Amino acid sequence: MPLDTSTYSLALLRLDGRRWNELRRIHAQISTQAAADGSSYLEMGNTKVICTVTGPAEGRRTAQGAGQECRVEVEISIAGFSGVERKRRGRADKRTQEMQHTLTTAFTSTIFTHLYPHSTITLTLHVLSQDGSLLAACLNAATLALIDAGIPMSDYLCACTAGSTANEDADEPLLDLNGLEEQELPFLTAGVLGDNDKVAVLMLETRVRVERVEGMLAVAVDGCKRVRGILDAVVRAHGRRIVEEGV
Asked: Could you give the number of structural domains in the chain?
């Protein structure tokens, strides 16, 4: 059933009751897996992701010897029950491989890899539920897990999505799309370092008129800054809890 966007400009509300610039509920925890070097659990709406970090560990030996630089490896597994259709995605799934490559590239440039020569840092993400903004949720969950593991980075890497309605009367793009909106609307995923406008990740997988891209990106960047505030609050609350338990 096509998504009816005609009511956006009239009621200024979306199908889930949010306004155009509202984030969905974000819930996150860190240190959820005691056996991992770092771990996190994150919900963005009904999209739910678990991330664990292993390493830095000694890198694999090759015929030419171990690599000089630290390697960042990403593995994503998507549960068959995570979406509306019960479809199991294997390692050869193109969409999964694209997300793994995006995360690997993003965190290779964000982590201070020069501090860990001849080492490998492995991020493993398990997708439990999908309802839009999957790549953004994976980036945010990985950021929290790396912080929990104590791996130094240049700053938080926070991500959010923004879409454009087909309604010509709508002046503003939509922030943080859910699954139904992603199926019907062109959207992009942006990842920002810290609370500035430095874009580290930009993924546009659908066709959209070029004059709409700037507005979509501006809304996504603003959403990333708000996500950073939420993730920072999660990290600070965890730190206070550790101090209180230690006392």
From this structure: 1
User: Which residue from 179, 198, 195 is spatially nearest to 187, judged by alpha carbons?
Assistant: 179
pTM of the model: 0.88
One-character DSSP codes across 35-51: TSSEEEEEEETTEEEEE
What residue numbers bound the domain in which 102 lies? Answer: 17-246
Reported as a single tens digit per residue, the pLDDT across 28-56 is 999 999 889 999 999 999 999 999 999 88
End-to-end CA distance of the chain: 57
Q: Is residue 69 part of a domain?
A: yes
CATH code of residue 241: 3.30.230.70
State pLDDT tens for residues 138-194. 999 999 999 999 999 999 999 999 998 866 555 578 999 999 999 888 999 999 998
